[in-house]
Amino acid sequence: MATDINTLAEICGVSKSTISRVFTGRAKVSEELRNRVLQAARELNYRPQQVMARDCVAIVVNDLPNPNRRTSFSERILNQAVFEITRHNLLSEIISVDELARLYNGYTKAVLLLMSENYIEQHLEQFRRLSMPILTVNKQYDFSSSVNTDHGEGVRLALEHLHAEGHRRIGLTVDRFNNQAGRERLEAYRKFMTAAGLPELPVVQYTDQDYAGSSAGLTTLLDSQPTALIACGEGVALPVFHELQERGFRIPDDISLITGELAGVSCWMTPELTTIDQDLDALARATITQLVTRIRNPQLPRSSSWLPTTLIKRNSVKKIQ
C-alpha cells in the first residue's frame, strides 16, 4: 500500500514543500537530502500525486539503445513503443536497469519493462513494490500485466509450410533457450516433429550476443544434414543468412531458410526471405493501448493478452519433389 506525502515528510523530518521540491526539481535541495527522501519513498512505496500536463511512461531496458543492434527485437520494439507513446500524447523516458531509482524521482504513471527475464528476476522485489501499473512484453509475472506474441504458433506455421513443401529434416535455432519465447518455440518444434513422425535434429542457440558460440552450434546442426532451417529471432535473421552463404550454402537450392521478419529488409534480400512475422507495429500498439488503459483505470486487475503470428511466404523455401 502506497503512503502519502504527509507520512513521508514526517518520517524524513522535513516539510511537505521540501518533499515536493525533491520530486519536481523546481528548486535545489542538497544531494544528501534528496537521496534520503528518495530512499524513504522507495521503502514506503510513495508515488507523487501531482499531475503533469502529460503523463510519463518509463521504459526500463537492460542497456541504453545501441545503434549496432538496430535489427534486434528489443531495439525494434523500443522504437515502436516510443512512437506509440508519443502518438497517445504521453511522455516517455528510457532508463537502464541500473537507474531504477529514477522511477521515484518524477511523475511516472506507468512502467514498461523491455528487459530480459534474467534482469527482471534480479529486481523482482523492487518491481513488486512499485505502485504504478507495470506491463511486460512476452513475459508474465505476478506484478504486471503482459502483452505476448504466440511464438509457438509461428514455429508451427513454418513447420507446416516446410512439411507441405516436402521437407522432412528440419532444423531449428532459437536466440534464447531460457525465456518465454524460446520455451514456446522449442515446445512447438518437438510437438510437431513427434506428431508428424519426423526426426528431431539438434536444436541450438544462435544469438546476436555470441556469434562465435552460435557459429559452433550451427555447425553441429548442419552436420545433421537438414534440408531446411528455421532461425528464430529478428536479430539473427541477417547473421544466419550471411553465415550460410559464407559456408557455401545456396539458399534455397542447398538449404531452405525461414527467419524472423525484418520489416523493410527481408523482402529485399536475395532470395526474398520467407519469415515468421510477429508484427512489431501491432505488438507496440497493443502494449501502449494496454498501458494507457491502466493509467486511466489503475484499479483494473492484471491481465495477459496474446497476439497471433503470421507466415510471410517468399522465395527462400525450395519444394522437394
Q: Could you state the order of secondary-structure elements as H and E?
A: HHHEHEEHHEEHEHEHEHEEHEE
Largest sheet, spatial ordering of strands: 2-1-3-4-5-11
Q: What share of residues are in beta strands?
A: 15-25%
> What's the count of strands?
12
**Please, what is the oligomeric state?**
single chain
**Rounded radius of gyration (Å):** 23 Å
Question: Roughly what percent helix?
Answer: 25-40%
Which word captures the global form?
A: elongated
Please, could you describe this protein's structure?
The protein is of the alpha/beta class and 321 residues long. The protein is built from 11 helices and 12 strands. A 6-stranded parallel beta sheet has the order 2-1-3-4-5-11, covered by helices on one side. Strand 6 (170-174), helix 8 and strand 7 form a beta-alpha-beta unit. The N and C termini lie far apart (65 Å). The model has no long low-confidence stretch (mean pLDDT 89).
Could you give a short description of this structure?
This protein has 321 residues and is of the alpha/beta class. Helices cover 40% and strands 17% of the residues. The strands form two sheets. A six-stranded parallel β-sheet has the order 2-1-3-4-5-11, with helices on one face.
